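User: For a reading group we're discussing how well predicted structures match intuition. Take Cytochrome P450. Before you show the prediction, I'll give you the sequence so everyone sees exactly what went in.
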Amino acid sequence: MAFLSWQPFLLFASIFLEVFLSFFMKLKSEKRKFNLPPNPPKLPIIGNLHQLGNMPHLSLYKVPKLYANDALCRVAFGRNFFAGEYNQHGFQKMLEEYRALLGGFSIRDFFPSMEFIYSLTGMKSRLQDTFQRFDKLFDQLLAKHGNPKREKDKDLVRESLRFCHVMHSMKRIEIPLSHIRDKNKFKSEDSSFLLDVFAAGTNTNFITLDWGMIELIMNPKVMETTQAESDLPQLHYMKVVIKEIFRLHPPAPVLLPRESMEEVNINGDPESWENPDVFEPERFMGSCSTIDFKGQHFELIPFGAGKRSCPAITFGTARIELALAQLLHSFDWELPPGVTAKDLDMTEAFGITMHRIAN
Ligand code: HEM
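Assistant: Thanks. Here is the predicted 3D structure of Cytochrome P450, as structure tokens, for the group to look at:
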């Protein structure tokens, strides 16, 4: 009799469980259809809620930093940033040290005769140590990649699309690199090439997102208009916003050291822009609508121009668009109570890349 009284409850519970499970499975299989950009690993049902912690804004702030590296690790080696190899070598710390060394002032670059100071300050040994560590990690990853018996199931990106694979194939089919450099040196340059990719690709991405989010939070109307767009291939206003972020906060403002053949006005020059210091994406919908950042318009060259401009302009822009779209689609952003736009420190740090000093 007691069992009979439980029957309706059991029936209801089993129906509920079945509906819930089929809904969950459907969600999972639908998600698999899309090739989504990298995200933090999540738990079933609660997703990433447990990772927000007591200070959600600080936790979210760390995400673009980490995932800029993750995306590049996948593209370069086909394996994600959290794979054991990187952690064993302290990859995140190595990248931070590399950026500090790259952006720091080195007296030897300006006065080669003062090399001894460079050794005395410890700069030389820091550089040597960092480069050796990179070489070791990259050599190990390249060797692993070249091994046909490696665990392929851990690879996340199709082989032919990885940088390291392209580098291997270039050597196999002997693409004539001789006019650029000595082919025999190519092997020893593999590691420095990969390092260039990481150095150039992670900080620029993160800095653009950081400045972009600050500008949007300070300009709620712009944020609202950007959020009103929903179709990823049709985010016209967001693209204009990104142009304006690049104009006002080019992540690599002095580009790489090059010699200019004539004087040009770049980015924030008052002769080229009305109200150059104001964040105003609408300028690219009016008289400046034909200006883009692909290297033809010298007043806006966040990726440089000419044959030594950034080779990753398409990849870099796509990553910014995807990340910004996700941040704006999923969250409403505002300043904490009592803080106004004027309280934010927008001072720029000097270095090869231009981040906010407040960071
Ligand atoms: C917001 C994203 C990015 C911006 C604003 C940016 C900007 C730049 C700039 C200004 C230069 C120097 C160009 C010159 O001196 O004329 C450069 C060079 C370079 N960038 Fe980027 N970059 C971005 C993303 C990336 C990414 C994701 C990668 C790699 C995957 C990358 C790889 C490189 C490399 C290898 C160079 C050196 C090219 C050479 O010297 O020939 N960049 N980038």
